[in-house]
Amino acid sequence: xxxxxxxxxxxxxxxxxxxxxxxxxxxxxxxxxxxxxxxxxxxxxxxxxxxxxxxxxxxxxxxxxxxxxxxxxxxxxxxxxxxxxxxxxxxxxxxxxxxxxxxxxxxxxxxxxxxxxxxxxxxxxxxxx
Length: 129
Prior knowledge:
This protein is mainly α. It contains six helices and no strands.
């Protein structure tokens, strides 16, 4: 997090594409067990060479599919409740509003600042959770 921008660019090596599939699988598996894992995988997306817009889009589509699968599993196991439904819908509305807001903010952030925010969020979530 505290490395200079020049040094960081020189050290980055792109991962092979099949690694992204493995990372996505691991993210889904761990998320299904623990409930959340996404921030830990930001590092892999950044090292993979994705732009900030591609990272946001990749994370968004991963979350959609992951949560649809979770819903199917939770409902089939009888873990569904009305309170959980309303809480989930409320969070979904907030997420949609956030996605549209980020669309207008993201062009003003440099790749460097975006990475620093991502790493900061990982550190913050580790200490707060």
